[in-house]
Amino acid sequence: MTDPSETDRRAQYLARVTAELESARDLEDVQRIVSTGARRLVAADGAAFVLRDGDKCAYLDEDAIAPLWKGRRFPMDACVSGWVMHEQRPAIVADVFADDRIPQEIYRPTFVRSAAVVPIRPGAPVGAIAVYWGRLHVADTHEIDSLQSLAECAAAAMPAA
């Protein structure tokens, strides 16, 4: 069960990030605000802003304790962010080495042990927000709900294509 003070902290922080997104000037601002916001929102060791790029997942921005995937593209069918966009629902990965949605060869050299990914625009996903931890962690309902709220705000702040 989540501590009520933690829920209040998360709600206050989400309100601040939402206000920042409302003043975002372009997609780069949205990416930066979301990556930093997602990481702090759930006390993760890293977060990435991912957009669908044809049949690829483009990792456009990242805020992490060590650089991982910013600027890289992975096939939709070989990436948990692609799975999230295809399935139109969040993924909770308790252990990256025990989940078949995770490409082991990509994660093996990283610090990542657990992750959570939510879609941006769940009905017709255009991207995803991924957060990850260097320890085993199962994202709870409150964390997923907070990330999904952030994803909704990000979708509203993104420039029309």
Overview of the molecule:
Helix 1 (4-22) packs parallel to helix 5. This protein is α+β, with helices and mostly antiparallel strands and 161 residues long. Strand 2 (56-64) and strand 3 form a beta hairpin. The mean pLDDT is 94. The longest helix has 19 residues, at 4-22. 42% of the residues are buried. It contains 5 helices and 6 strands. The protein is 39% helix and 23% strand. A 6-stranded antiparallel beta sheet has the order 3-2-1-6-5-4, sandwiched between helices. The protein has a single domain (4-157), classed as Beta-Lactamase (2-Layer Sandwich), CATH 3.30.450.40.
Q: What is the CATH T-level topology?
A: Beta-Lactamase
The CATH class name reads Alpha Beta
What is the second-level CATH architecture? 2-Layer Sandwich
Main sheet record: 6 strands, antiparallel
Arithmetic mean pLDDT: 94
Adjacency order of strands in the biggest sheet: 3-2-1-6-5-4
The count of domains is 1
Tell me how many strands there are. 6
The number of helices is 5
Helix-and-strand structural type: alpha+beta
What's the order of the H and E elements?
HHEEEHEHEEH
Let me know the CATH homologous superfamily.
Answer: GAF domain
Instruction: Give the radius of gyration.
Output: 14 Å
Q: Any low-confidence stretches, pLDDT <50, length ≥5? A: none
| Basic shape | globular
Percent strand equals 15-25%
| Amino- and carboxy-terminal Cα gap | 40 Å
Summarize the structure.
By secondary structure, the chain is α+β, with helices and mostly antiparallel strands. It contains five helices and six strands; from the N terminus they run ααβββαβαββα.
